Amino acid sequence: MSHRKKAAAQVTLLLAGAAMLCFGVWRGEAATVLSKAIKLCLECVGIG
Amino acid sequence: MGKKFSNVSQALSRLRGWIQAGAALLTNLHLPNFLKGGLYQGAGKTVCVPGLNCYSCPAASGACPIGAFQAVVGSSKFSFSYYITGFLILLGVLLGRFICGFLCPFGWFQELLHKIPTKKLSTKKLKPLTYLKYAVLLVMVFLLPAFLVNDVGMGDPFFCKYLCPQGVLEGAIPLSLANSGIRAALGKLFTWKFSILLSVIALSVLFYRPFCKWLCPLGAFYALFNRVSLFQMKVDKNKCVSCGKCAKACKMDVDVTKTPNHTECIRCGMCVRACPTSAVSFRYGFGDGKKEPANELKTEETK
Q1: B253 touches B123 (CB < 8 A)
Q2: What contacts B48, CB < 8 A, 6 or more positions away?
């Protein structure tokens, strides 16, 4: 991969990542994450 | 400029243990919760931490990216998580598997176990197992939670439930010690997960980072971005004397002179320290730094 192509891929991926992150927050995924993360995850600790 | 990169690389690789300890502490800031037997419940848990760290750890400051992804795709509202995928793409491009080598608490835990003085075994002949983690990422983290759902459209977090040893290490063990209710609720699933944890511990003493190499879905995701990550390995062909010391020093079985941005490279810097001529260094920036063609080794970019 040439220097330019690689730099272009990096910039594109950074923009895509930022856009996806913002879209996810906009449609309420962050609230779902918070509601799961503040409670004891029964599956994670092996209760079921 | 080259010497500056080399000095920074040497310092970074020498300080790695301290950086790992600091990252583990920052990832688990709420230490008094270990005594209370409860979880931190602040807004900080909206944001994911970069490494594999269970959000059911009493001290956890943020959410586990793998747990959070499964929580979103397994919920009745969503079947894909743009929030977590976008976050992981950003981290993958900005740092790649540097996160595994420097910032992941479970990676550090395995490394500490590997320091126990016993006979050490090579993983070079077990290379096919490194592909297993991609299957874990695809099947247990994405497909099963998204498509194996109950009547109300909710799926289990299969990786967290059946495979992740971090939930037992950081969650079940400290919580059950402090809370008799949790202790009483532990059953067969806990026994299964505890067996996995014991196996990973035993393997970590013998092999270098077995979970990272073979099973970790987070490492698999970051590995996909190692080639395009801004954090890269650089080999100066004018300085390289082809002694092979870098490849010999690498515990992730990578030859940095051939594939500096190999998917398995966790940027630990063992090769940087092993190089007698300071030909290997870290590089951070866009592109591949080949604006100065005389300074680069012709490398095999594909894995």
Answers
A1: yes
A2: A33, B62, B63, B64, B65, B68, B84, B87
- Per residue in B138-197, pLDDT tens? 999 999 999 998 888 899 999 999 999 999 999 999 999 998 999 999 999 999 999 999
Tally the domains of chain A. 1
What domain range is A33 assigned to? 3-45
The answer, for A20 touching chain B at a CB cutoff of 8 Å, is yes
Backbone angles phi, psi at A32, to 5 degrees: -65, -40
Which of A41-45, B49-53, B222-226 is predicted least confidently?
A41-45
Kindly state the helix (H) or strand (E) to which residue B106 belongs, with its residue range. Answer: helix B105-114
Q: Which two tokens stand for residue B77?
A: 């509202």
The CATH code of the domain at B232-295 is 3.30.70.20
Q: Are A24 and B86 in contact (CB under 8 A)?
A: yes
Block residue for tokens 């409670």? A39
Per-residue CA distances from B233 to A16, B54, B96, B181, B297 (Å): 24, 30, 11, 49, 11
Spatial CA neighbour of B176 closest among B196, B198, B158, B194: B194
Domain boundaries, chain B: 17-223, 232-295
H or E stretch at A11: helix A3-26
Of A30, A32, A46, the CB nearest to B77: A32
Chain A residue with minimum CA distance to B56: A40
User: Are residues B190 and A29, on separate chains, in Cβ contact within 8 Å?
Assistant: no
Residues in chain A, total: 48
Predicted-assembly ipTM surpassing the 0.85 threshold: yes
How many other CB atoms sit within 10 Å of the CB of residue B118? 8
d(CA B208, CA B268) in angstroms, rounded, equals 12
Looking at residue B209, its amino acid is R
Chain A contacts of B291, Cβ < 8 Å?
A: 3
